[in-house]
Amino acid sequence: MSLLTLDGIGVTLRGRRVLSDVSLTVGPQELVGLLGANGSGKTTLLRAALGLVPHEGLSSLAALPPSARARAAAWMPQGRAVAWPVAVEEVVALGRMPHGDGRTETGRAAVDHALTRLGLDPFRRRAATRLSGGETARVLLARALAQDAPLLLADEPMAGLDPAHQIAVMRLLRDLAREGRGIVVSMHDLALAARYCTRLIVLSGGGVTADGPPEEILTPDLLRDAFGLEAQIVDTPHGPLLDAHGVAP
Amino acid sequence: MRVMPPGRSGPCRGAIWRVVAAAIAAVVATEALAEGPAGPPARVVSMNLCTDQLAMLLAAPGQLVSVSSLAQDPRGSAMATEAAAYPSNRGLAEEIYLLDPDLVIAGSFSTQATVDMLRRLGVPVAVLDPAYSMADIGDRIEEMGRVLGRAEAAAQLRAEFEAGLAALREEIATRPRAALYYANGYTSGDRTLAGEILLAAGFANIAAEAGLPEGGVMPLEILAMAEPDALVTGRPYPRASRAEEILDHPVLHQMRERRAAGAVSDSEWVCGTPHVLQAVGRMRALRERLE
Amino acid sequence: MRALALGLCGLVAALFAVSLTVGPAEIGPGESLRALVMGDAGPLTLVMREIRLPRALLAALVGGGLGLAGAAMQGYLRNPLADPGLIGVSASAALGAVLAIQTGVAAAVWIGLPAMALIGAALGVGLVLMLAGQHGGSLTLILAGIAVSALAGALTALVLNLSPNPFAASEIVFWTMGSLADRSMSHLWLALPLVVAGAAVLLRLGPALDALTLGEDAAASLGVRVERLRLSLVAGTALIVGGTTAVAGAIGFVGLVIPHILRPLVGARPARLLWASALGGAALILAADIAVRVVVPERDLKLGVLTALVGAPVFLHLIWRSRRLEA
């Protein structure tokens, strides 16, 4: 069963060709790391998959009506701005909007669960505008979690987090995948990607240049071609580590 | 470009030059206002709605060369038909100067800058006050006769007017109460010309009860509570304005339906001329119908 | 939340009653309310039913509408400076109304006046959204608002100055500052359908505006149709501002001050702020309209003067705060 099917996705933004002919599927229990240099089209691909940018090709999500799509996939965009000083628990409760049960028992339980899972219980009643960057990111992730959709798309959820919280987020995503969700997360940290993701997709030059398990993907050749790095992945007793020793000429 | 009356002007450029030259000369020879030539003025321009009408009533044939454009508008002028026979002016110093008048008659509400400019250019200007009362009207007629050199005609008109007014006045035991109501909720009190028209016709003016002897803004509520027997409203201009919307308020309609006789204050009420007698006459007829 | 709703309703009801008993004809409150309810052929009933009742009802309607429209615009633009009066929507509506009156459309069809005001408001709000939009930020929004206000104000003055009616030119003050003096029930019937329709549109936007707190993308992923939301917002705002401006002129700052005061009391939720601001706006205009009659009874003091005196300091405070945040 696939949670997301993209077939021949192409996007042109302001006359610039950003993506061409991207096809992939994501199934349950997959934690997909979407990798690529800045400007390689990671955000655009995720937004096209959700139908938030005009695109060619087919996306199983974009084809759904908005309300059904909101129950099929949760989306955590890169923008972290919270416009009004709303309480943290109310922000998280927005995730129940597609289910229309924000005030019922089930809805509240889902919100409580998401808050606890991200360690936000002490912040429940705090205004979401008075949090640190890392705390805000966790609140927004909790909001996406409360949406309780089979598929979660997250755009650089680790940006701005300290290393401990980055690891905590990746562990959470891994656990969510193990529980049966499909997850696509765009990210820059290759070592975290190598350690936690079940599958990596590398974007460069407007298309998918690699797609497979981390150990098969992150070869020195690919690291040089797609990321401009002289590096290799080293296996350690605690998992893989990125040993970068230079920038490719 | 304004078209000059035939035979009255040289080329326009020359005419404008004359204005400029005269202005310079006037600045140099400060206040060197020449004494007018002996005898009545031969070319008179009036630039105020009320002086226009008095001048038309008193001037010798050919003596009055222009009246203001307002005098030709029947909404404000009781003599619009007569005024149509005269070239009109819009009260601008330049156009009046080019008419080459030897007397300009202005009202005391005419633009001061225009009057000053004309005087600097050496044009004699007579400024007449408006008539604030019936008694003023006779004086204004006489004053107009004096500046036009038509004292005899003025004395005759004054006598006719005063006789006509005396004939209309009568002693009233109980005066019905009337209200004057204009745009923006404005009312005129007893000490105004409109107020005196009411008094002369045998009405009492409710503005006095409301503590507005000079007139002023009377809230609609006060008007409704006063329950006048007659309601005299201003005539709305075409192209409605919010200021006049109050004249169409349901309260006024209901007052008229219930008891108040309606009348309209029009051009005969505006200026202190013998035409106010017609206004008095019509209001008197209205009062007689109320009895 | 229930306490706030009850408190605001009580405040509106109390101010409504006071508004009915205040006026130049000094009549006791008991006597005047009795004349209003019982009714007789006397002038007091006429005054109560035809002068004071429409005035109080219009104050509540106009204030409620402007408060609601302000809260909705702020929610959509995610900007506390958005107010229909400040960003030129009211000025555009006033231009439409003046054009309707001066071209004779208002006299020809009864719906002419509010319809033209509505079109003006829709063009104004559409233009501002086009110029400033969701991503424009405070500065762009205010600049766009200044431009639209200035253009609409200049055109209004032009139309009134060209009018053959000698009273028209003096009416610029009414259209820019607003007043409820000497309105009648016919004005209420003119504005009511538009304001009610606009309120019905805007009050339904609550959940979408809540979702928009997290940005357009997040809202869209929660099932909000952002395009439809924008259209609803333009339509609802235009209906309300068009309807209220057609009968009461442009009254500024209501949609700025009221959401600002009430936001902390509703936990900053845009959805709750909608109905709260409607009640708060009604209370503000009722109070302001009582004040203009009590403070200077002999002058027709314009409502917008009072709301600006209250609103401008709030506006300055908000600019000061947003400057600090953006720095």
From TrEMBL, chain A:
Q: Which InterPro entries match?
A: AAA+_ATPase, ABC_transporter-like_ATP-bd, P-loop_NTPase
Function, in words: Part of the ABC transporter complex HmuTUV involved in hemin import. Responsible for energy coupling to the transport system.
**Highest taxon of the source?**
Bacteria
The GO terms describing molecular function are: ATP binding; ATP hydrolysis activity
Which parts of the sequence belong to the ABC transporter domain? 4-230
Q: Which PROSITE patterns match?
A: ABC_TRANSPORTER_2 (PS50893)
The UniProt record lists the EC number as: 3.6.3.-
Which gene is transcribed and translated to give this protein? hmuV
What's the protein called, per UniProt? HmuV protein
TrEMBL record, chain B:
Q: Signal among the record's keywords?
A: yes
Residues annotated as domain Fe/B12 periplasmic-binding: 43-291
Q: Say if the entry is tagged with keyword Signal.
A: yes
- Signal peptide positions are 1-34
Kindly give the InterPro entries that the UniProt entry links to this protein.
Answer: ABC_Transporter_SBP, ABC_transptr_periplasmic_BD
Q: Which keywords belong to this entry?
A: Signal
Q: What is this protein called?
A: BtuF protein
UniProtKB/TrEMBL annotation, chain C:
Annotated Gene Ontology cellular components are:
plasma membrane
Topological type in the membrane = Multi-pass membrane protein
Q: Which InterPro entries match?
A: ABC_BtuC-like, ABC_transptr_permease_BtuC
Q: Which UniProt keywords apply?
A: Cell membrane, Membrane, Transmembrane, Transmembrane helix, Transport
Matching entries from SUPFAM superfamilies are given as:
ABC transporter involved in vitamin B12 uptake, BtuC
Coarse class of the primary localization is membrane
Transmembrane helix in keyword set: yes
One GO MF term on file is:
transmembrane transporter activity
Keyword Membrane included in the entry's annotation? yes
The Gene Ontology biological process annotation of the record reads: siderophore-iron import into cell
Q: Where are the transmembrane segments?
A: 56-77, 84-101, 107-132, 139-160, 187-205, 233-262, 274-296, 303-320
According to its UniProt record, what is one Pfam family this protein matches? FecCD
Q: Where in the cell is it found?
A: Cell membrane
Protein family membership = Belongs to the binding-protein-dependent transport system permease family. FecCD subfamily.
Question: What name does UniProt use for this protein?
Answer: HmuU protein
Source species, please? Answer: Jannaschia aquimarina
Give the gene name: hmuU
